Every structure is written in structure tokens, then in C-alpha cells.
């Protein structure tokens, strides 16, 4: 595999939605990660993402290889509602399979962890599709605190 120069940085919703790689990454994400047929294929609502970004609730990170977007992470930081501290939750994370071996996914999670700490959160929640590569990695590296189930309405 070729060596790439990987970088991770905070990006705006406009940058993510305006990226040439956006449609390809979103389609690949849907194919690989969509495990709940009740939700259908992802159809991100740009207006709502931008509103949440303006309110300071949404943080976006982009992962780049040689300047090209190859992954992203979106994180919600909620004010203290139930606890005395804000809470961070990874809303979505995806890295192009061709670039996973180089570590950009872990760099996105590391950057999210730092951003959560900077926002006053003691940590962040991340979920993964059952038996996915992220599920296997997370089960080795992070503390298992919750299990999520779907209940049909």
C-alpha cells in the first residue's frame, strides 16, 4: 500500500457538504454501515446540520490523505441536561476502506476525544455496527458502558 500523508482537522458542515468526495463517502457509508432497514438509506439534512453547528452542538472533523477527504466524524456535544457536565456523542464516523490501514480512523477518534475534552466533556460515547471493524477495535480499546437496541414503533 502506498504511504499517504494523513491529517485530521476540524471542518465546517459547508466543507463536508461541499467536498467532491462527499457523495462517494456517503454512499460507501450507507452500503457498509446501514444495518437498520427501518431507517432507510442516510439522507443528511444539511440545513439541520448547519443549524446545529451554529448552536455549537455539532462538531465536524475531516480526515485527509494527501489533501483529499477520505473520512469524517460528526460529534454532538449536549449541554448538561441530566448530568453536571456536557456530554459528547459521536453521531457518525466513516473512513474509506482503502485508507483504514494507515490509521486515519483512529486519528479522527483521537481528535474527537480532544475536542470533547476541550468542550468540558469527561469523555465521549461512540457506537458501532455489531461485528464491524470499529466494533472489534472499540471492544479492545474502550470501556463498554452501554448497549443500544432498536424498538420498532
What report would you give on this structure?
The structure is a single chain. By secondary structure, the protein is an alpha+beta fold. Helices cover 33% and strands 24% of the residues. It has 5 helices and 5 strands; from the N terminus they run βαααβββαβα. Strand 4 (87-95), helix 4 (104-118) and strand 5 form a beta-alpha-beta unit. The protein is globular. The model has no long low-confidence stretch (mean pLDDT 90).
What is Rg? 15 Å
Oligomeric state of shown chains:
single chain
Helix content: 25-40%
Element order, helices and strands? EHHHEEEHEH
Biggest sheet details? 5 strands, mixed
Unreliable parts = none
The general outline is: globular
Average predicted local confidence, pLDDT: 90
| Topology, number of strands | 5
**Total DSSP helices:** 5
Structural class: alpha+beta
What is the end-to-end distance?
46 Å
| Major sheet: arrangement of strands | 1-2-3-4-5
Strand composition percent: 15-25%
